[in-house]
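REQUEST FORM: STRUCTURE PREDICTION
Request ID: SP-0412
Submitted by: Lab K.M.
Chain count: 1
Length (residues): 232
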Amino acid sequence: MTIPAALLLLCNVTFSWGLEIPGSADLREDVAPQEVHFESLDYRNVLRWEHHGQVHGNPQYFVQYKIYGEKHWTNATHCQGIRELHCDLSQEMSELREWYYARVQAVLHGAQSSWTLSPRFNSHWETSVSPPKVKMHVTEQGIMVQLRPPSSPYRRRNGSRIAVRKLQRLLYRVYLTHNGIVQEQHDLEGCVRKVLITDLKRRTTYCLQAETHILLLGRRSGKSQAVCVTTP
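STATUS: Completed
RESULT:
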């Protein structure tokens, strides 16, 4: 018996609808990255996103970026087909006065998601800062404290890193404590990174911590790890 061609076509369509097609609209929507946003510390601008918890598998991610107002997107070459949920875009966002967008697309089982867009971002206004590193030693006059300020990911032509203080106006606050109680506070601004603390008690253990303040933004770091010394 010959089956009419129209019936064969109908059977094929019905059979296709019964399959779970990898590129279906539901899967493309489910695999789309979520909560795309920037986190910036000392001008290290890292784009982060989340994976849909109900999707099984390990998608590949593709990242693009552009300056606000531009029409065309640029591929972040080191973040194409990655499995991680983050991408460092510090070098791509070196124009510190510009506002940027980024977007992320996921691919899983041949299904491409829609692009998920980040909020508009400017590192100069939105970066956070880390505390300075503290070194100290006892002298005949007292405790000499030396601070090493945080560095940005950007480099000079000679390869040395550019300090964050070259990009923002910073203040360093140093706390001298004894038995967990603050005894003195010293503020260092600009290029000043050393302070001599005098008139201390003999044979007494003092600890020092420091924090960094971005004056323009009213933002500050947490305190550095405590460094302690005992006076002679």
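NOTES: The helical segments are 5-17, 25-30, 123-126.
Reviewed by: T.R.
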